[in-house]
Write a structure and sequence with these properties.
Blueprint lengths: L9 H8 L4 H9 L6 H8 L4 H9 L7 H8 L4 H8 L6 H8 L4 H8 L8 H8 L4 H9 L7 H9 L4
Helix pairs in contact: 2-4, 4-6, 6-8, 8-10
């Protein structure tokens, strides 16, 4: 059986990444081509949120501090969530995610399985104003809840 994997030249990849249609730019960004830092930066600042999201999901580069800050502040929650799921974040960046202004971002960080949260972070999560954040922390099985946390959970009216 013949190998049908198509190999593109750097010029063809660049053409795909700069195509006028966002869906084409996304398609090229999803492939496992080695991209230049300039191509990655262009993708992370694209006008289309789907393109920015796809570039944020790529795991073959480590975002700069500026790229992460911009990603966490993106106007699209889909881009923010893509950055929140990255596996190369520092403890400080994870803490910033746990205190993000958007509850769905905090919830995304709370469900990360690669993090061991401090007792302070757990308590903050269990008392968060957002139901989803509280739920994600309550579902975790990597800490022992205090009696006060258990009682508070039992008295909660959130579903």
């Amino acid at each position: 059986m013949a190998n049908n994997k198509q190999i593109f030249t750097p010029e063809e990849i660049e053409t795909g990444l700069t195509h006028r249609r966002a869906s084409s730019r996304c398609a090229y960004a999803r492939r496992n081509y080695k991209l230049t830092p300039e191509q990655i930066e262009r993708g992370l600042t694209d006008v289309d949120r789907d393109v920015r999201r796809v570039f944020a999901e790529r795991e073959d580069y480590t975002p700069t501090k500026e790229q992460l800050e911009r990603g966490f502040a993106d106007k699209s929650i889909y881009v923010v969530r893509a950055f929140a799921n990255r596996r190369d974040l520092t403890k400080k960046q994870i803490e910033e995610g746990l205190t993000h202004k958007d509850g769905s971002v905090r919830a995304r960080f709370a469900e990360r399985k690669d993090c061991k949260f401090t007792p302070e972070q757990i308590e903050r999560g269990l008392t968060d104003v957002d139901d989803e954040v509280r739920w994600k922390f309550a579902e975790r099985d990597d800490y022992k809840a205090t009696p006060a946390q258990i009682m508070r959970g039992l008295m909660s009216t959130a579903i």
